[in-house]
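Box 3.1. Reading complex inputs
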Amino acid sequence: MRKFILKSIIMLLMVYIPVISINYFVDPANIYHDDIVVNSAKLLNAGNIIESPKNMDEGLLQVCRMQELNYNPDTVIIGSSHVMYIPFECDGMLYNAGMSGSYLGDYYAIVGLLESKNIMPKRIMIGVDPWAFMRSADDGRHSRLDKYSRFMLDLVKDRHSELEDIEESDMSKLKEIVSFSYFQSSVARLRNMKGDALQAGGHIRIAVADNAVIGEAAKILPDGRRIPSAKEYHDIETLQKEALQYIASKRIYQLETGFRDVQQDNLKDFKRLLKYLTTRGVDVHIYLPAWYPSVYEYFKDDDNFSGVLKIEEAIREIGNEMNIPVHGGYDPKECNLTEKDYMDWLHLKPEKMLENYNYIRG
Amino acid sequence: MNFNSLSYAIFLPIVFMIYWRVPHRFRWGLLLLASYYFYMSWNPQYIVLILGTTIVSFFAAIFIEKYKEQRMRKYVLILASIVCIAVLFFFKYYNFFSNSLVIVLKSIAIDLHPATLDVLLPVGISFYTFQTMSYMVDVYRGDVKAERHFGEYATFISFFPQLVAGPIERTRNLLPQIKSVKNFNYEEAAYGLRLMAWGFFKKLVVADNAAIYVDAVYASLDKCTGFDLLTAVLLFTFQIYCDFSGYSDIAIGTARLLGIKLMTNFKSPYLSASLKEFWGRWHISLSTWFRDYLYIPLGGSRCSRFRHSMNLMITFLVSGLWHGASWTFVFWGGIHGLVQVIENQIGWNRTNKNGLNRVLSILSIFIICNIAWVFFRAETINDAMFIIGNLVMDLRTPAQFLDSGIDLHKNGIFKVLIAATIVMVYDWKSLKMDVLEYIASRTLVVRWCIYVLVVYCIIFMMPVETSSFIYFQF
């Protein structure tokens, strides 16, 4: 048996040593090399517009930014990429803390960050996506913020906790270093960039942009808002094709194969967060970003995605109950939006996002 | 807990290490705990079902053996079988039969609205139900003695490698192995690992990559060209084979690590020269189950030609229904039954096929299987008929194909076809020898090169998101 175990370990090492090494040194998502994020945060906090680096750890960016933010925002925007691009204009200073694919845990984390840095704003807008409640309030997408979500969860449940006492969990980093799908991404980057890929972080240089005009590269503004690149605008034919592909695969971004029931515990935690904010005098607004028309029709037709419609109703009920305005709506028809208002199958054009936000039912 | 998950990769070595460390008398306990933990990782509540089925069948078998009066023995067997089937019926077939009844009654202007059940199908229920039923029938027939040790019996029913998708084991084979004293055998364990690697290759490289294209095509049939449909039909043939046989290989390989030999479930089925031969090579544990517990009790082939044909049709229609609560599965089973009836009528199996004759026969059966699989995969019979009707419509050249229809992973298809070819070559070689034993007999360098090559093929070629095994839904 010893011989068997020894040979098995040797085989495992033969497989995993190259996988772990390539995952660490190529690191296509910059999980193990923070320089890009730290430097990006410094540039943004100094008032620069930067070209958005690919695959940046957005959670870490929020931590780095808020640690050194040189202003106290009056309004903070929380949510996914559905809020990142919105060209809000409001009284006072704005900070857009949108992060791709944000879950409930990420909403908690951003509020936790604001609370821990003592920069709670007067107004918070939360863009609520239907997938937000598929994970619990301490399990956001951006694992670098886990301790802030746990800290915030303790606060809303009146459990006294100090941020310093909450341990940071690096399980996601550990999972990715042995991940075969991450290895595939690393190898793909090696093939595309050859030797440069092995310079940790060096293959991505942070470029400062002159202006906020839509150009070749996506940009990040000092207030956190994103400007999409020109190539992120797709023509209608491409949009239709993209939407069809996802509908055909029956797997929708973050929603995966869908859900039928609202996750009540997570919804309760969302209410707790809202209650925490409103009792502290924060003016809260909720935004429900509209889905691409054919995708929303698919949600209506496929029982597996009936949870999406139920989530909207549940959020509206909460809004009524707690006197919180609910802007927009998942149904694009309700907000008079059509295919041509979208830049890709998931995102409205920025100006249309604002229009969608400005719509309030009834 | 899927076989292709990180949690299984942690679970199995732990079970393996503890299993070979503990004294033999505690091994059944460890396996039982591990098996229930494995099952509960899918849905903890459904442990009640498998436990209930185990208890009912355990005591039923003891009563059957105890009673001398034939009528009483029969009553107990029938009652216990009804209980086991009732559970299966409730979770799997209630909505199907209820909806079918509504349709039939509506056609004669009777409007009925029975309640529908919104319950999740317990994983593996079809498999362990059949396993308990075969045990009870074997005891009734006197083929095996009723087991008196509840723990060992429960382990036999719930043995985790084969619990959720077979092979459906016979009491004669598995129960004595659970009871017997075993010592660790290096060759057996190494063979098990090789078989698992091969199973993962089939599942992750062939089946999961094929699934991406197949799912896309079947979800939007009206937007596909004939070439898309033809490709999807062919890919699904390999997807279902590699998914299911891959699972079986991993299950059998896992059991070998624990010193237990499960039955072979697949023997190069796509190299069969008749459907009768196909069913001797495909899902062998299920086909032999239906042979022994349905087909032969109905009379088998030892009756009139007409009765024989009826027995074949009944067996295959029920087999189709076993696979899923939908008329598409029944239709699929019906096709297999009908073709075998025709084979018998024309004496297809009476002549030995060699050379070109055999090659042509294999091709014919392969085409028939492809067509039948369309019904297995399609959501409705209309969809299946649409696919078959349009298979040769709007065909284009391969170059045009790459630029048309569903624009998903077209380059991935060539990857699948190459991997599927490797699988077929393996199967062809397996007709004459045990390929894994052949690899084991090579030099150290050659063996390890092959192992590393297979593992890296899997790592490089598996899709980013892998799917669960198809037969889990049965």
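In summary: The mean pLDDT of chain A is 88.
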